[in-house]
Amino acid sequence: MSLIPWSPFFDSINGIEKFMDGFPAPTRGGNGLIPAIDVYDAQDTVVVETSLPGVDPKHVELNIENGVITIKGSSERKTEVDDKNYYRKEIRSGSFMRQIALPQGVKGEDATASFENGILKIRIPKAELPKAKTIKIEVNDK
Question: Options 2.40.340.10, 3.40.47.10, 2.60.40.790, 3.30.390.10; which CATH number does 25-79+90-125 get?
Fold first, then answer.
């Protein structure tokens, strides 16, 4: 008979890994998928990009209100594989929503959006900054 050393530490890690396998992938939040977003400055425009692979752009809605952009929609995955036949299932489908505050000084009403190769790109023009005004000081001598 051979002896197997017992290690509560490694048994705990294996148990945690098995427990975590039952949870959705990190890209899924409580209300659905959470797409990653990049926001960057392109001279006179603020650009917002998000990767939405497999999403039909007809199922995506954009809204800019009070300096916050909201991207929401849904992705449908048509498959003939029964859920119980998966060994691992990480590709998600369903509704998604993401909100992010935009930098100050953008004109949301003039935003444009394009969708190419699974990347949604939103361009929001910057508002013109008010020009500095020189004010002449009047001196009242009495």
Answer: 2.60.40.790
